[in-house]
Amino acid sequence: MSSAPAIRWILTVLLLVLTAFAADPAHAAVHVPLRACILPATGQADGRTAAMLFTQPQRFDCAGKQTAYGAGDYWVLSQPLPATGDAPLRVRQASLWQTRATLYVLYADGAIRRTGFTSANAGRHLRLGAIIELALPRHAAPPVRLLWHVEGALNRRGVVIGPTLIDRDAAAAADMTMAALYAAFAGMCLALLVYNLALWAALRQAFQPAYCLMVLCLLGYAFTSSGLLGQITGIDNNDRQRINYVLLAGSAAAALVFARAFFERRVFDGWLRPYSSAVIAFVLLAAAAYAGLTPRFAAITDLISTSSYLFVITLLAPILIRAYRRRSNYLWVFGLAWGAPVVLGSVRILAAFNVFAWQLWIDNSTLLAMALEAALSSLGVAYRIRLLSLERDAAREQEIAARLLAATDPLTGLLNRRAFLDGAIGREDAHQLILVDIDHFKRINETIGHDGGDEVLRLIARSLRAAATPEALVARIGGEEFALLVRADTPLDARAVLDRLRMERMPFDLVVTASIGTCTGTLRRETDWKALYRCADRALFAAKAAGRDRVRHGAPLAQVA
After folding, report:
1. pLDDT tens-digit map of 19-29
2. Which of 207-211, 354-358, 552-556 reaches the highest mean pLDDT?
3. Cα separation values, 111 from 140, 144, 164, 402, Å
4. If you write DSSP's letter for every residue of 58-94 in order, what string do you get?
5. 3-state SS of 478-533?
6. How many Cα atoms occupy the beta-carbon half-sphere of 535 within 13 Å?
7. pLDDT exceeding 70 applies to what percent of the chain?
């Protein structure tokens, strides 16, 4: 494989991440790391309230490790918040195993408001990277301090870790960064699957099915650890973490199976083969125990599960030594591709043992390591798939744009007459047709010019969209004539449409009125449409004759089978 495509792909991925980090120099986004001071909760009987604890910050431990307190319920207090302006603020924190978290916000005027989540509904607050994001309740005064009440925390990594106060721009930048990382990783995984399955069909190498299984497990791990599973399905956040543990263990076990198939058989002869089988079984059983027995036996299952990965790391040294001594032809390839995953995996394990403080990038180091491995092993295919994907997406966008252009009135963005009739004729149930005609539109054009008249049409169209129900057809069917079509049993009152039009502020504060005629009938055939249109048009003419700026209803048409 040529190295040029690989270099281009690596630069492309780095450019995506750097672009996500780049901020508008004219705007300083709010991004304030928060200190988390902890206080064990002893239950409701002790009389503690958020209002009380906001006035007693000295009771909180800001120096010790959160994990020293063990599992249970906790209060967690932030430092006083800096001034951040008027922008709506959010708080982000790492997703952890906990039953419920309530966030109390103290404002400068003394008001306290709250928000929060449970493990059951945490999916709606998850962001990429398995980050929980809570919007601070809006209030006239600025927020000055935060207080969490966390219930059912395992506290294996902490109670509230990585809390950060951000605004919308900072949140968007963080989401873009994680989206670039996960998109690049997913693209590389898919490329590896195609590449190795194609090679396996041609070459029948034993290591390729094992490698594909590992990539599938990693892809599933990325799907769960990113929080995307929770966002899409709304699964209980604690159950999501159970699945996450199992898929990570499956990835590690498949990686060892791959290593045994990748090297020559002589590398694993003797004690190394049964020992590696024992490590594979230990990793899978430890993850299954964590998924099935947590939270009841969390202390032991978490320790066993985390320790199992130490055995995976310690197994690599004998493998490499054996491969070197027995002159394996694949040692340098394995070392080049797996050096970064081993190093970053070791850092991740140490972080799990709380040797390092929690960091978002350490938490996602598995993805970073495997993304690098993927880049070094199959960049050529990944780059080609990426180009094909971009071409497909561009073609799809062009097709959608062409369809919209053919069906849309270019001035107002509403359906044009042809598209409106295509969507209307052939409907079975009775429908209400509402015709709207702007009063004295010629005089409006003479007063403020044709550009002003066009703006009036756009504003009328905007009002009609706002007044219509989501399933309604809204169209401009003539120069200053508009139409709305809804099911007869839909609660859309023509007078409400007229009231909405009256509220619209027109150019130069010009008073613009409209007359409305309605009629109800069926639309099975084109003749039904013509009859329904004539009925509504007569009602519209009656509204004009009665003085304009009013609604008139035509008699419902008889439904003919």
Report:
1. 444 444 334 57
2. 552-556
3. 10, 10, 22, 53
4. GGSBSSS-GGGG-SEEEEEEPPPPPP-TTS-EEEEEE
5. CCCEEEEEEECCCCCCHHHHHHHHHHCCCHHHCCCCEEEEEEEEEECCHHHHHHHH
6. 21
7. 80
